[in-house]
Amino acid sequence: MGGESEIFSTYEKEFATLHDTITAKIVSEIPSAATADAKKRLVNQTNRELEEADEIISQMEMELVSLPTPVREQLAPRVKSFKNDLKKSKKDLGKYALSDRDQLLGGSGGSGSHLVDMEGRNGNNGDRSRMLQGTERLQEGSRKLEEAKRRALETEGVAIETLGSLNQQREQILRTRDRLTVADGFITKSQGVLKGMQQTMMANKYLTYGIIAALMLLIIIVIYFKFIAQSSN
């Protein structure tokens, strides 16, 4: 795509690769795990990969903010589709996690209580981790917004310079048009003068022809009276 961000394309490729890995684990590797420990290890690993995929989607959403509106509107549905795919993967993985938990809680009451305490501590650690990730996302989002603001200011500066240049060109065009109007007036006057000169030349030409004809007639008359009239006498 011509206007697509290279950063967004990189995030998209990373997400596609990671999502393929997650899908392979959920569909094939976890169900066929040889032992419960291996299955648990795969579930935990897939959970971490899901968090990483979630982070990549967040980076995509932040990158969209800095893109032009037409490109952002074109890419937003793809991000939404990625989120839906990730949501489905989480749901599918949750079935295995719930099954493992039920098996562990099926033991003695004391063991179950201890497991609940461990889950509570793990939950707190997970909350802190998510808070840290959220803070990092906010910082990254702020950076993206600042970058978008900087680009907008640069674009505004270029637009102002362009408008100034266009105004100068407009003034030059108007001055050129005025000069052409004046030149057109001079040309019209020159055409009138040339036409008058042409008429004068034609009149002088006819006058010259008339004078020549009169002189020739006068010469003929003189010759007639000088030679022919004298011969008759």
From TrEMBL:
PANTHER family xrefs: VESICLE TRANSPORT THROUGH INTERACTION WITH T-SNARES HOMOLOG 1A (PTHR21230:SF26), VESICLE TRANSPORT V-SNARE PROTEIN VTI1-RELATED (PTHR21230)
Start and end residues of each Vesicle transport v-SNARE N-terminal domain: 5-95
Annotated stretches, region: Disordered: 102-143
Pfam families recorded: V-SNARE, V-SNARE_C
Cellular component GO terms, alphabetical: cytosol; endoplasmic reticulum membrane; ER to Golgi transport vesicle membrane; Golgi apparatus; late endosome membrane; SNARE complex
Coiled coil, from the record: 36-63
Organism per entry: Chytriomyces confervae
Protein name according to UniProt: Vesicle transport v-SNARE N-terminal domain-containing protein
Major location (coarse): membrane
Domain of life: Eukaryota
Keyword rRNA-binding: no
Keywords, ordered alphabetically: Coiled coil, Membrane, Protein transport, Transmembrane, Transmembrane helix, Transport
Membrane topology annotation: Single-pass type IV membrane protein
